Amino acid sequence: MSARVRGGLFHAALLVSVAIGLVLLATLLVDVLRKGLPFVDGVLLTSPPSSDPDRAGARPAILGTIELMALLLVMAVPLGVGTAIYLEEYADRERWYNRLLEVNIQNLAAVPSIVYGILGLAFLVRGLGLGRVLLAGAMILTLLVLPILIVASREAIRAVPDSIRQGAYALGATQWQVVSRQVLPAAIPGIATGSILALSRAIGETAPLLLVGALTYVSVNPTLFGDFTALPIQIFQWIGRPQENFHSLAAAGIIVLLGLLLTMNAFAIWLRNRYEKNW
Amino acid sequence: MVKGALALCALVSVLTTVGIVVALLQPSIEFFREINFIDYITGTDWAPLFEPARFGVLPLIVGTLSVTFWACFVCIPFGLGSAIYLSEYARPRVRRLLKPALEVLAGIPTVVYGFFALTFFTPLLQDVGTGVGIFNALSAGIVMGVMLIPTVASISEDAMSAVPRDLRAGGYALGASRLQVSTRVVVPAAISGIVASFVLAVSRAIGETMIVLIAAGTLPQLTLDPRESVETMTAFIAATGIGDVPTGSVEYKTIFAVGLTLFCFTLVMNMVAIRLVRRYREAYE
């Protein structure tokens, strides 16, 4: 085989590698749309779940997902940004505990999500006696996305050039003034983009919520200390039903979930393009 | 004052780790007081709810590794191929388009992949005459492998991009073709990052829950036959956790013992991956 032929074959093999992922992605989307689109209607969005597939909807699940998102925004984002500021602006890299903190965060990012579910089951549901409630689910998802949020926020903070900090110090600002009035405002677009992406990761998580008990029949709108369910859980429940119609409902639920994720991601990209600065 | 408040935020992630370790260890210790550790780790029969109950974890481990094998069978060659294409072959414009498109794969919730594996890919495998069951390790593994392609591709590509241009120029100056420069200069120079991406993919595959729970089933069989239903460690934890098992019972403690086993597997993988990534960063950055 001549070198030219071998080069061409290799190039073709590489193209196939890239194409496989994209083809499967397209197949998946077409398959879900084909099965689910006829079922995306008012009943799906406004009715509670039911054993009759024609009357079953996902209202409590959709509301549960929206409430989880709001809680995550309140709990996870401040914690993540706070940790990022500490690591980037305050922590002394030479100290062993700060290095340990970094390795710890890297490790947490790779802990399987179901293990976070075990943590929630042991400490929140049983240990603290919260029970299988929305707040427990939100707390577990907070811990789950924290590493992603920290990494994204750190990158945004690191992208702010040092000259800005030096300038502020030269004018006599304290460290906190520099951080809160110069660094943070400049880093906010990056932090917002990273936060939205982290939230969209959390919204799609199913496994940890299964362990904190989101898989229950919920027909009322979820409250903070009440039974709850979420969209991915509802989808999982419908997949588990033997009847074909419930599989179509699951596909319809997937369309709603993917639509939500797509909106969030598009917003994140828009934010980044709109406010991104090149220093 | 401010520094203290920020350090408290940072403390949350430390407490998370401590919490995970305590949550897993304490019930596991109680579990192993009742069930002999050697019987657990070498036993070939997993039936915790039967009478008499049997706690041999090997079927769960073998099930996990079987699905992981098929996932790697897909994600390692195609992920590495994608990385080489993006880093060495694609024009910048094509690259800017393809990279985010591939990343979408990693952003789709795993429950969606589970649905796809069960309702589309498994019937497809049945149609082409592979003789797979409704729940099987093959379908779950392959679909998971495609999901992991961007994981392998993006970390490998990072490592390849960090290889200095001089090395490539040196190769070309000696008359090497693009194929030779890619496979004999760039890939060897970036090998620690590439291996790290493989290790991370394995770790993800071992820890993945929803795809296997939906598409591979919950039948703990000691088999390497990919056409059969298997139960992975994660699927067992989820399936048992869904039910309202009484706190303190042996069934309840199995969740934690299996969770600890899973955690040990992924922890080792992650430490290896972190080491490897640090090595290529040190070499070229």
Question: Your description of this structure?
Answer:
The complex is a heterodimer of chains A (279) and B (285). Chain A is built from 11 helices and no strands. With 279 residues, chain A is an all-alpha fold. Chain A has 2 domains: 1-39; 42-275, Orthogonal Bundle (MetI-like fold), CATH 1.10.3720.10. Chain B has one domain (21-284): MetI-like (MetI-like fold, Orthogonal Bundle). Chain B has helices at 2-34, 37-42, 58-89, 92-107, 110-127, 137-161, 165-173, 178-189, 191-207, 210-215, 233-242, 250-284, and strands spanning 46-47, 54-55. A two-stranded antiparallel ribbon of chain B has the order 1-2. In chain B, a hairpin with a 6-residue loop joins strand 1 and strand 2. In chain B, helix 3 (58-89) packs across helix 6 (137-161), helix 4 packs antiparallel against helix 6 (137-161) and helix 6 packs antiparallel against helix 9 (191-207). Chain B starts with a helix and ends with a helix. Chains A and B meet through helix 1, helix 3, helix 4, helix 5 and helix 6 of A and helix 1, helix 3, helix 4, helix 5 and helix 6 of B.
Report a brief summary of the structure.
The complex is a heterodimer of chains A (279) and B (285). With 279 residues, chain A is mostly helical. Chain A has helices spanning 3-36, 42-46, 59-90, 96-109, 113-127, 134-158, 162-170, 175-203, 207-211, 231-239, 244-275.
